[in-house]
Amino acid sequence: MTQVHDQIRDRGIVRQHLARLAQRPQKTQGNANGESQTLLKAKARELFRERNAVLLAHFYTAPELQELADETGGCVADSLEMARFGARHDADTVVVCGVRFMGETAKILSPEKTVLMPDLEATCSLDLGCPVDEFSAFCDDHPDHTVVVYANTSAAVKARSDWVVTSGCALEIIEELAARDEKIIWAPDRFLGSYIQKQTGADMLLWDSACIVHEEFKAQGILDLKKVYPEAAVLVHPESPDAVVELADIVGSTSQLIKASASLNNPQFIVATDRGIFYKMQQAAGVEKLLLEAPTAGQGATCRSCASCPWMALNSLQGVIDALENGSGVVEVPEDIRVQAAKPLQRMLDFTA
Ligand code: 13P
Ligand code: SF4
Fold this sequence. Notes:
EC 2.5.1.72; Rossmann fold; 4Fe-4S; five-stranded parallel sheet; four-stranded parallel sheet; binds 1,3-dihydroxyacetonephosphate; NadA; 13 strands; metal-binding
């Protein structure tokens, strides 16, 4: 049985946040090219040494940030591996280039470390779409349910949960809970929840929120592209709408999609996720493979996200330097919430170890 909890579907929160971001004074752009980028990276490398710091970069961030992480012994990864790597590493300072929940996860798992982000406003529509008070009340209404939340949530929402999962491990964890006949509250991504419910047959009550990047992908656009490239494999992140997931050859987390591009023989890949992934995917697949963006709802000025997360785009080389030089962008999680949130996060890490 699947039910959709539809009390909260407040796109207004997301729109307001993005409108406020657009009005902020422009920060110094870190997406510099050529010499200035080389200088910025050299400065960042020096600061990493001085501060005994390590960089965790998500696959959706700019190529220069992914390069910097690779060159300085950090990691470029999906959200599950970022959590694992940050917890294991013995650096004093962890710089997280990604979105807020990734920085909070690093802090929850490593309270003794200083965790910095280039821009603390880098959030996620799923996190915004699941305010803790409403979510907590929803859970209180269903006390017989196991509460499973996606990693893309605030520390406070995680603290209210029994399990945290990422797209890289959600299926196996829900399969296990379904085998134990547990009834599940799932939040916040309804598309990922719906995909998992169909795969596992679990009894799930779904929160109604979505990723503003992935919900834009269109099944008809992929079908049209397949007519031009009939041999292409379709790689889909499960935050995408059901009709898009149904067309997929591979459904998976960002790292699972990159692995698939390396192992499949298709000459082209149609990719339904943030286009930041193309940097690592092209390296994994080989230069001879053609990577195609899955079509979204619009183009240019008419496109709301155009396969590009507006919050991931707030990360920059200059932001990394500012954080390390000035100690700006410190991620804090209140201790009582941190202790509670660490339990379901650690449960996920132990389950997937
Ligand atoms: P991954 O866990 O696959 O890295 O996804 C995180 C995310 O925010 C996808 O939009
Ligand atoms: Fe959140 Fe979507 Fe951005 Fe991922 S791509 S961080 S789910 S808004």
